[in-house]
Amino acid sequence: MKRIMKNVSWMSVGLLFANVLLFCVMFRRPKVRWDQDCYDCAIVCGCRVNDDGQPSEALKARVEKAVELWKERRVRYLIVSGAAVHNDYVEAEAMKCYAMESGVPDEYILKEKQAVSTYHNLRYSGRIMRNCNFQSCVVVTSGWHLRKADHYARKNVERYVMAAAKRPPNETAGRTLWLYIRTNLHMYLNMWRGYY
Length: 196
Known about the structure:
The structure is a single chain. The chain is an alpha/beta fold. The chain has two domains: 1-29; 39-193, HUPs (Rossmann fold). 49% of the residues lie in helices and 16% in strands. The chain has helices at 2-26, 57-71, 91-101, 118-131, 146-156, 173-193; strands spanning 39-45, 75-81, 109-112, 136-142, 159-165. The mean pLDDT is 89.
């Protein structure tokens, strides 16, 4: 019995190692090195809106990062992306309101209200970029979400860089670790769904 358990343990370690290696080959590290001083826009990936219509802490952190980049003149426009995914509130609407409250004028914010996933965030925002003749963007999202968003940005946007929002103060280290694991597993699932 001990020998069987030992063999199962080694097989598990081997499968885990092969899985990590395959993951790193298929889903590269996010592009975080800036190639230019100013980009045409920031694409802000959607996230949950609370049931009272207010942005969640994670969503606020993403918008705050985009607003910071806009105020520093690192980006010219914001594209806020997200539909009503978790409840009746449209993520793009909540993000636009929060960005305007933070000092970004209405004319510098474009809304993309169809996206129901990261894949769609980048696909539909890429279309908006092409329609506006934007050539480059900063994709703003949470740190645990960078690799996934980078993967879809690579397929939908020509010149981009990734920017991580600050971790919300109420998000524990354990919660962050769980979000990394869950997001990476979800990337595999999306690959099988044809979102690769």
